Amino acid sequence: MRILAHQKRLFATIQATPAATTASKLNPTAHSKGPSPHVTPAAALRLAVFPQPGLPQPVPAVQVVRPGLPSLNTPPPASYALMNPDKPTWSARAKRSGLVAIKRGMSAIWDAWGVLTPVTVLQVVDCEVIKSRYNKQCGEYMVEVGAVNEHKSHRVRRPQLGHFRRVCVTPKKKLTEFRVTPDAVLPTGTKLTAMHFVPGQFVDCQAKTTGKGFQGVMKRWNFKGLRATHGVSLSHRSGGSTGMRQMPGRVIKGTKMAGRMGGKTRTVQNLKVVKIDTEQNLIFVKGAVPGPEHKYVRVSDAIRKGWHGLTFPEGAQVPFPTYTGSTKDLPRELLAPPPKSGDKDPLARARREVEK
């Protein structure tokens, strides 16, 4: 593997360290006889981010792989400290951070009146705040969130390894950012769980839709198609005319035609959180969520409901900026509060009609 000149200068400290000392500390049993192996810069950086089980922490020569980066034993920089008060309170103007969940599939929940509610099961796995920053271009605070730990070092590129090592966080498979208000900024390393949301609140779910490949206009745009009987030959499922003749004499941009279907980012708004499983970190959302199973979903507070102050149920205690307590003393399942007409049978009218 070729190493550029500036990379050689960056890792001069590692190469200057005696190889025998480095090899003996990393693996005392390997190469006991003969010269010790050379620790390449890429291997040193991966050992710093992915410590091997049963082996001691890398030697100081490995901790200075890249100048200007703190070691894994040092706390995060002061710029990543919590910028909000000690006990912030939620308000309708506040915008909290979201989290990244994994779609596990769909299920159904029966309520006390026997009404079946279809739900989508979302699981929060290793969700953690990577860093917080101020975006000068849009003038807003951004919180970077990662999910699902990556335990295989060869799947993470060196720039990403440096990014995670700079903030002393385990490398993640999925990264995304959320816009927040200054009082909702989270410090680096904050754990995000399913308790970040409140049962009964409304959320927005964003994900990439399932790809369908190249499809015709009848499936892609719900066209009616041409006649299936007389007067049509070999064009029953075609889109028909695509424009005028002389004026303007061209096909207008944006005309619906056959093409690739699906595979686009879509957002479903105002989905109600029906139930939360505190033990398995599951969020049960009423309705459908875009994308196939085992794919990532961005979940955040409903923005349109927030304009009217209806995101959270009445009298709910909002975990602001996030939930930091323990879930050991909480029940495993937290259900959404019943609607205002909870004592009224929603199927009473249907039952009366059946009796008639």
Automatic annotation (TrEMBL):
Signal peptide: none annotated. One of its GO terms (cellular component) is mitochondrial large ribosomal subunit. Transmembrane segments: none annotated. This is Large ribosomal subunit protein uL3m. Residues 341-356 have a biased composition (Basic and acidic residues). Belongs to the universal ribosomal protein uL3 family. One of its GO terms (biological process) is translation. Its main location: mitochondrion. It is found in: Mitochondrion. InterPro entries: Ribosomal_uL3, Ribosomal_uL3_bac/org-type, Ribosomal_uL3_CS, Transl_B-barrel_sf. Residues 318-356 are annotated as: Disordered. One of its GO terms (molecular function) is structural constituent of ribosome. Pfam families: Ribosomal_L3. Keywords: Mitochondrion, Ribonucleoprotein, Ribosomal protein, Transit peptide.
